[in-house]
Amino acid sequence: MGDSNNQTTHFVLIHGIASGAWAWYKVRTMLEAAGHSVTALDMSASGVNTKTLEEVVTFDQYNEPLIEFMASLAENEKVVLVGHSLGGLNVAFAMEKFPEKISLAVFVTAFLPDTEHRPSYMLEKFIENSPAVADGWQSVVSTTGDEAFMRSTAFNLASPEDLSLQTLLQRSGSLFLESLAKANKFTKEKFGSVVRDYVVCTQDLLVVPSLQRFMIEHNEVKEVMEIPADHMAIVSRPKELCQCLLEFARKHA
Q1: Pair 198, 212: CB distance under 8 Å
Q2: Average pLDDT of 3-16?
Q3: Active-site residue (options: 46, 204, 236, 252)
Q4: Distance in angstroms (rounded) separating the CA atoms of residues 62 and 51
Q5: How far is residue 107's CA from residue 239's CA, in Å, rounded to a whole number?
Q6: Is 231 in the active site?
Q7: What pTM, to 2 d.p., does this model score?
């Protein structure tokens, strides 16, 4: 995209665990209003995707919609990938497989892997550092959801309407720790060749700011922006997040 403010960017938005493309409804509308192209994808067994969680055993299977989308892009087409929460790992695998098709990868309080450890490493750090929160989160996403837990952690700044929407539309999910622990490490030559930016959400009580910064410190992140948002910044602080995405794309895509 360079320095031109008139050039259109194609943003591809990837949701977090037990969520769906619907969760980007505010950010998507704002990006489109700014004149950009936006694709929000449902991962396998998420949103309106027809697969069930029982059919999705590995992270690769979970990530199939993104990989298929990337493969369908025209030869010279490039996109800006944006991953929220667990969606950071979806983006990372796409970076490893299609680095030439990605002009920029943005991680929004998302799990950002490195090239020194297995893809499960940052999830393991999350569980190690916040065992009670991690247990609660895994319990919520593996069932139909606990509204009180979500209100006190991921949705602590979100509106009651957005929390109700999550409760209504949530589907069971998985962290896929076992398959991620067996996956190959990401490489500096492919994953590491893609420009990475990060949005730190300073009021996140789930993926806490100290963990977000730990992941940034273990990566060659081009630029970091902070917003006063909870884990669900995509619904609680969409204007501030959209401004970050537009600025990142203007500078680095």
Answers
A1: yes
A2: 81
A3: 204
A4: 9
A5: 16
A6: yes
A7: 0.93
